[in-house]
Amino acid sequence: MIELRRLARAAEPYCFIAPLLLLIIAVMLVPLSLGISYAFRDIQLLDPFSGGFVGLDHFRELAADPSFLAALRHTVTWTCASVALQFLFGLVLALLLHREFPGRRLVQALVFLPWAVPTFLVGLDWAWLFNPVVGPLPHWLQALHLRHDAGNLLADPATALLGPIVAAVWWGIPFFAITLLAALQSIPKDLYEAAAIDGAGALRQFSSITLPLLAPTIAVTILLRTVWVANFADLIVVMTNGGPADSTQTVASYLFTTAFRRLDFGYASAIAAVLLLLLLAYALAILGLRHRFLHRPA
Amino acid sequence: MLRKASYWGSHYLLLSLYMLFALFPLYWLVKVALTPDDLLYAEGVRLWPSHAALGHFRYVLAHSEFPLYFRNSLIVSGATALIVTLLGGIGAYGLSRFSFRGKTLFVTLMLITQMFPLVMLVAPMFRLLAPLGLTNSLTGLVIVYTAFNAPFATLLMQSFFDAIPRELEEAAMIDGATRFGAFCRILLPLTLPGIAATSGFVFTAAWSELLFALMLNSSSNASTFPVGLLSFVSKFAVDFGQMMAAGVLALIPACLFFLLIQRYLVRGLTAGAVKG
Amino acid sequence: MRRASKLATVLSGIALASSATAGTALKLVEVITSPERTETLRGIVKSFEDANPDVHVEIVSLPWGQSFEKFATMVAAGDTPDVVEMPDTWLALYANNGALENLEPYLKAWEHTPELNQRTLQLARVIHNTAYMLPYGFYLRALYYNKKLFAAAGVSAPPKTLEQFVAVAKQVSKLPSKSGYCPCGGAGGVNAWMMFGALESGSNVFFHADGSSTFTDPGWIRGFGDLADLYKNGLAPRDSVNWGYNDIVAGFYSGTCAMIDNDPDALIAIAARMKPEEYGISPWIKGPSGKSFPTIGYGGWSMFANSRHKDLSWKLIATLDGVPGNLAWNRRIGALPIYTAAAKDPLYADARFRGWFDELADPDVVPMIMPMDLRVWAVFVSSIVPRTSQSVLLGQLTVQDMAAQWAQVLTKARQSQK
């Protein structure tokens, strides 16, 4: 009798995750392993006779591919800038929205709007805004003396990456704002009251109450966003197509071009595998930090 | 007094700046949607067209396939949001409240699914779903979207659950409540904002998803509205006015959904913490 | 276990049911999609369905911007249609892989084959001298020019030679925020590069006898340099380094570009947005050799080799490319006709088509067929050319290096492909 109960108790957690596990294995892990296996074969999408095993050839080619190495550099810039700015602005916004003020409900609803726009449309919208023929931004930048002519930011290799970054930040702030706001809302108010009674100022309250309690959510959201942004090719493909002259090509957009223009799925899968490894290393680092934080002595 | 005034002053200033930044591109969307074709380039830079017209909206609603695409998107996104919130919530509870063998492996597995560029999954996914008859169908899309969004939703909800100490529920269970009862009475009310936020994100993710909707489905009966937006781009002309009109119309359901769950997102001053 | 077998029963039941109710179902995929085209296609297909009552044709319209990758994915996963619209740049990919049906036997038996003009059959047989597709029309490059901008800049007539072209471009570019010529810096730019290269080299030969590319010959390099100079000397908008077809056509009808080079099907988009007196079309410019080499492309219909209704599919292609179908189609899309007699159709008597028919009649105009039979051509056009040409326009790469890179890719392709 006790054995059965012990068994049931031990099996309990697995019941909670079972449906999820099954779904993920069936629908994601199977295609994923197939996808990764392509990295070791020569797969030309339209050539039914391709598919031979090539071992590490693709990876060797990658290591020497100047386009890939440049794309790696751009990816770091793209990811760091986008995520950092989204997070900072999102946090500030969340803190602002945490206070009660007249019109707060309305502001909260409006804040969410950018996230609701499909990324394809976001890219087109911002491409329009940056286009001097149909958009106001180049003219404003010129009027503010930030640029010497009303040219298109996206046509200049030195500034082209700024376009997708601005669009990504615009689109991504709501994610951080809403998530962090929800986490802020879960912090019990009397913790702050107690701290105020003890004489702690706003900054002290923030650093010793807010930040630690927000930490799990911050870690997860930054982790997830970084992974997504690194994989995010939509805005770049729509706004600049990796150009001009590959100056905005990130690993994700290079992947897209290799897979869907060159139709070389073998090479593209190798790129994807490398990206996966890099992101995995990054994720394990963050998770390690989070684990330490969550389980540190009180 | 001055400190308070300066705080609120900067509070409203920062908020207004952000609102401007967030809403200007959306305003531009609306402006282009209201500009008749012949003025699109001639008056491109103006802040408001000299001749605003509802022609594009009329076209999208009456002549294009958009109402069908909207319906499809609503079905797919709603179903996905519902299923993911349920499955993910259950999974998140398991991850947060138990420690068990294989937990790290499971979490790592879920993370890995988020890291692989989805572009590479298109071809294998097609091969997987085609023999099951799930390509060119809304059901297939719901299954795919659920699988894509479940890991993220689970991890996110887990972080919200993690912020609430276990002791609160354990105290209630010692007092005789079932696990489910403890969840409903203690954990759920405190984390409702987080669950609502996650649900909202999943809905919008499914609502705006383009790649798989494009690649897995071909007929218009199974197409969602982002795919419909693509049909406004032809070889020599992009019907920007109509595309933006469709985009504006598509914002409405996403906003409505979010307004719906908003109540749970903001807890008033009275919803205090658990005493003791 | 039980659920799986239940599912299987349901699925097979649905499959049986659907095959029992319909007569025959054909699948037709269109790829250069636009709302007007789809409507026209539906009309022609309906006439086919009326003539063959037991047949239903499902039309799948792929969004043009993503049609290449979407169709490739469908085909790779086995979701193939019976008939597909086949752009010239895709033909090599599908025909060389044995995916397309050989249309020669059908053409031999077709009553309209003798009425097709010479070019139609020549272009149909580009791969291994076998017809893997039947063209529906031709795209021949010509010069579109903006009469209003010309008048404002004091230019009286469209340029006929390269020198005149550059001079006119200079004159118009003096007008504030206007440009003389708008190139495609992004996708779709290959035609202009080829035309300028051939112009200076005086020939449209792409390969020497041994299969090596002619791009490294001084004439071609000079021609590439001419086009690059147009951008570098400010005669084109700075932004055009990123532009595709949509953008240059938009640049033209918005009055930013005085001249563009494009095909007849751009006419539809332009005519809808400009008045006839505001623009004109003239034959492409001639080079120092006195000859002009506008590129010629085509679109057509192909049948898939694994189609289960080949005769019916051919009948569909015959309807689409039959005399009334083809005319209705070209009336909407604006390509040049495949039938010798069609040149007399009132559609082509329109003053705007004058430019193209002048080109076709001029012995010094040699329509240039690009090496589209190379499997690498699609990749060359969609990613190698934009990337390298953008580098050249931005001054990061010399014209010689670009020509050398192009030559390397094409030589390898030509020499390895039989």
Give the class of chain B from helix and strand content and strand pairing: mainly alpha
The greatest inter-chain interface is formed by: A-B, 107 and 104 residues
CATH class (first level) name of chain A? Mainly Alpha
Uncertain runs of chain A: none
- Share of helical residues of chain A: over 70%
Which whole number gives the mean pLDDT of chain A?
87
Strand residues, percent of chain A: under 5%
CATH superfamily of the largest domain in chain B: MetI-like
Helix-strand layout with pairing:
The complex is a heterotrimer of chains A (298), B (276) and C (418).
Chain A: H1 2-38, H2 57-63, H3 66-98, H4 104-116, H5 119-130, H6 137-143, H7 162-185, H8 189-197, H9 202-231, H10 234-239, H11 251-260, H12 265-294
Chain B: H1 2-33, H2 55-62, H3 66-97, H4 103-115, H5 122-129, H6 138-162, H7 166-174, H8 179-208, H9 211-216, H10 225-230, H11 240-265
Chain C: H1 2-21, E1 24-30, H2 35-51, E2 55-61, H3 67-76, E3 83-87, H4 88-95, H5 104-109, H6 118-124, E4 134-140, E5 142-146, H7 147-153, H8 162-173, E6 179-181, H9 190-201, H10 218-232, H11 245-253, E7 257-262, H12 266-271, E8 279-282, E9 296-303, H13 310-320, H14 323-333, H15 346-349, H16 354-361, H17 377-393, H18 399-416
Parallel strand pairs in C: 1-2, 1-3, 6-7
Antiparallel strand pairs in C: 3-9, 4-9, 5-7, 5-8
Defining key terms:
heterotrimer; B: about 280 residues; mainly alpha; MetI-like fold; 2 domains; 11 helices; globular; disordered C terminus; C: about 425 residues; alpha/beta; D-Maltodextrin-Binding Protein, domain 2; five-stranded mixed β-sheet; four-stranded mixed β-sheet; about 10% strand
Short structural description:
The complex is a heterotrimer of chains A (298), B (276) and C (418). Chain A is 73% helix and 0% strand.
